[in-house]
């Protein structure tokens, strides 16, 4: 969490709310017996919540610590530690079946990036987002700020992928870059979205510092009209018998970029540099007169700076909200009409597309069919594999569905051997169907339109995927533009 963007750090405004019974000082594990002793309503609420593995969450923190240790003691924007952090999280999500996008942007400290991961199931017009920043300050590993929130979001996403749940809504998780430089990653992401794409985001939940060593249990006092997320957070704490307080975080974290566009936001926080009061210590345990996190923005923010109970509770609450919002009923929101693909001509860069970082480009070395951007796959002249893909929900009411796109190819290869290829695929759950394969043989340096009947997939959410493989010798460029999934 960055310091106050207007200058000196202002004290946080907190409002105490009587919520549940007072707790004894926190132990190092949640009490199952205490949860079972709650009212029947509270028990039912708790039973609906997943138990996110504390050990796995701690393992992610250990990995982030190892990355920092190997890279100058930090994971700061523009440095190797941050790049390695992105690679670690991306690898975990890729392996779990998420479609991931690395969105790069420039900062005063060098290039940074956001990692956006989407579960490729659910209503395309109802996007629910959870996230936290992945970067640290320059003088520390940033394990509480904000390895803790990142680890909680990551482990909750992995648990959901392994659970066999079928998401009703489109689940998207984000790991922001350059938050410590002024929320730059989340601001860049939101500014890159069209109005239509912003309107698809129904809620954004932010998790920035959930494992403070002298913890409190704060809920963002951030409740735009129609936002029930704040109340769902407090209801979970109440059902667990955990007292909580509202807090005004004054736009100091990544939810601010969403709130500025009128998107409902909420979040939790275990405290930073302010001092715990006597009444808070009586309610939550810990030490009065001591900062919630004495290592805030310091070199001592390592894995030794984490309270396991706070981390466990925070991760479980993240999991609860992920499960809740993935299945939330948003009524009869219509599915997209016209072209079901988002950003079909790539003019917003990699927005809405996932896969390999780099192919979606405005590099003038190969022309776009329209505009300036396209997906340029291959052209490397070396052994490489690249993908560009997007999930799309095809309405069950469709009488016909067609995938189309424009393709331009050129090659330095010769002869009739297919050395380099691009496959057009439909991924339907664990099944992949290749609709066509194009190669260095019979290339056409002018754009031609390709079209495929995909009516068989109506009523399903599938992934449209372009998969390129190039060998180690001469280049072949496959340039895709102006894609569409149209229904009638």
From TrEMBL:
PANTHER family: METALLOPEPTIDASE M28 FAMILY MEMBER (PTHR12147), PEPTIDASE M28 DOMAIN-CONTAINING PROTEIN (PTHR12147:SF26). It comes from the Bacteria. The lineage of its organism: Bacteria, Bacillati, Actinomycetota, Actinomycetes, Micrococcales. This is Hydrolase. The keyword Protease applies. Gene3D superfamilies: Galactose-binding domain-like, Zn peptidases. CDD domains: M28_SGAP_like. Belongs to the peptidase M28 family. M28A subfamily. Residues 114-319 form the Peptidase M28 domain. Residues 1-29 form the signal peptide. GO terms for molecular function: aminopeptidase activity; metal ion binding; metalloexopeptidase activity. GO terms for biological process: proteolysis. Keywords: Hydrolase, Metal-binding, Protease, Signal, Zinc.
């Amino acid at each position: 969490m960055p310091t106050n963007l207007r200058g000196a750090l202002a004290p946080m405004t907190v409002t105490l709310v009587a919520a549940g019974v007072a707790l004894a000082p926190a132990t190092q594990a949640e009490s199952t017996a205490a949860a079972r002793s709650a009212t029947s309503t509270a028990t039912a609420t708790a039973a609906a919540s997943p138990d996110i593995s504390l050990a796995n969450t701690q393992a992610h923190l250990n990995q982030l610590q190892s990355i920092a240790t190997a890279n100058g003691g930090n994971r700061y924007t523009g440095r190797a530690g941050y790049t390695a952090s992105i690679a670690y999280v991306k690898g975990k999500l890729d392996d779990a079946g998420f479609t991931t996008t690395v969105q790069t942007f420039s900062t005063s400290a060098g290039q940074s990036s956001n990692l956006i991961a989407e579960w490729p199931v659910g209503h395309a017009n109802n996007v629910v987002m959870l996230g936290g920043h992945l970067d640290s300050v320059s003088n520390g590993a940033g394990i509480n700020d904000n390895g803790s929130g990142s680890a909680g979001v990551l482990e909750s996403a992995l648990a959901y992928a392994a659970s066999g749940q079928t998401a009703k809504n489109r689940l998207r998780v984000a790991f922001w870059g350059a938050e410590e430089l002024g929320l730059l990653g989340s601001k860049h992401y939101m500014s890159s979205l069209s109005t239509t794409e912003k309107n698809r985001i129904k809620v954004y939940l932010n998790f920035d510092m959930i494992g403070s060593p002298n913890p409190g249990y704060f809920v963002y006092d951030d409740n735009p009209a129609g936002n029930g997320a704040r109340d769902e957070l407090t209801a979970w704490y109440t059902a667990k018998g955990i007292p909580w307080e509202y807090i005004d975080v004054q736009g100091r974290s990544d939810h601010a970029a969403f709130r500025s566009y009128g998107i409902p936001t909420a979040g939790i926080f275990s405290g930073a540099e302010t001092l715990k009061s006597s009444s808070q210590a009586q309610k939550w345990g810990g030490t009065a007169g001591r900062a919630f996190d004495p290592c805030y923005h310091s070199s001592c923010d390592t894995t030794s700076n984490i309270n396991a109970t706070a981390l466990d509770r925070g991760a479980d609450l993240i999991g609860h909200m992920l499960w809740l919002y993935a299945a939330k009923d948003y009524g009869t929101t219509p599915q997209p009409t016209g072209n079901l693909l988002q950003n079909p001509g790539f003019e917003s860069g990699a927005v809405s597309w996932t896969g390999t970082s780099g192919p979606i480009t405005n590099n003038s070395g190969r022309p776009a069919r329209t505009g300036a951007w396209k997906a340029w796959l291959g052209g490397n002249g070396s052994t490489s594999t690249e993908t560009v893909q997007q999930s799309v929900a095809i309405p069950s009411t469709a009488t016909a569905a067609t995938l189309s796109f424009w393709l331009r190819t050129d090659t330095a290869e010769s002869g009739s051997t297919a050395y380099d290829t691009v496959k057009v695929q439909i991924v339907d759950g664990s099944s992949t169907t290749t609709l066509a394969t194009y190669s260095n043989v019979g290339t056409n340096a002018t754009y031609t339109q390709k079209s495929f009947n995909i009516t068989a997939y109506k009523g399903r959410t599938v992934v449209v995927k372009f998969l390129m493989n190039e060998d180690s010798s001469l280049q072949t460029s496959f340039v895709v533009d102006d894609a569409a999934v149209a229904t009638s």
